[in-house]
Amino acid sequence: MTDIKPISTDEDYRIACYFHDKLTEQFSHWKIKFDMPTFELKQYTHILSNGWNIYYQFGHNDDQPYMEVYSTHRMASDSRKCYYLDGKIKILPSFNTVCIVGEEDIFHAYNDGVAKVVFDKESGILRGL
Q1: CB of 114 within 8 A of CB of 108?
Q2: Is 70:80 a contact under the CB 8 Å cutoff?
Q3: Is 86 helix (H, G, I), strand (E, B) or coil?
Q4: How many domains does the chain divide into?
Q5: CB-based burial label for 78 (10 Å; 0-12, 13-18, 19+)
Q6: Does residue 104 lie within any of the structural domains?
Q7: Is-contact 68 125, C-beta < 8 A?
Q8: Residue 110 burial by CB count (10 A; 0-12/13-18/19+): exposed, middle or buried?
Q9: Would you tell me how many other CB atoms lie within 10 Å of the CB of residue 69?
Q10: Range of the domain at 39
Q11: CB of 94 within 8 A of CB of 70?
Q12: Rounded distance, CA 15 to CA 25, Å?
């Protein structure tokens, strides 16, 4: 288990503001409000607002903090993104909701692969479900 890293320095506060702004920007159309993150590394946070289920967690990768966000809405496809402090955004695999007739095996194999990652008991963003 990783230690909780509270916002205790000016640098931590700057990082928290950056990630808070990214979350707010991603969901600005729906006017969803987010609390300021506390950098509980690998601890996920869940928000349910305006039909959205939004899960986010923080981590540290290659000497750089990141924020992973998984969002679901019954009227939209799932989305999973990783925001890095250097401004990069990485689109990560999320569950597919559309299955092409005749390609059910491909659909299920892909979603099974995603499930192994997002439901991983140690680091998966959906591990609490």
Answers
A1: no
A2: yes
A3: coil
A4: 1
A5: middle
A6: no
A7: yes
A8: middle
A9: 22
A10: 10-94
A11: yes
A12: 15
Confirm whether 26 is domain-assigned: yes
Residue 127 lies in a domain: no
Distance in angstroms (rounded) separating the CA atoms of residues 6 and 56: 16
Q: Is residue 89 part of a domain?
A: yes
Coil, helix or strand at residue 28:
helix
67 touches 80 (CB < 8 A): no
Q: Are 45 and 59 in contact (CB under 8 A)?
A: no
Residue 96: pLDDT band (50, 70, 90) is: very high
Q: Please report, as a single letter, which amino acid is at residue 85.
A: L
Entry field: residues in the chain: 129
Q: Which alpha helices (H) appear in the chain, and where do they start and end?
A: 10-26, 104-118
Q: Name the least confident of 8-12, 46-50, 65-69, 71-75.
A: 8-12
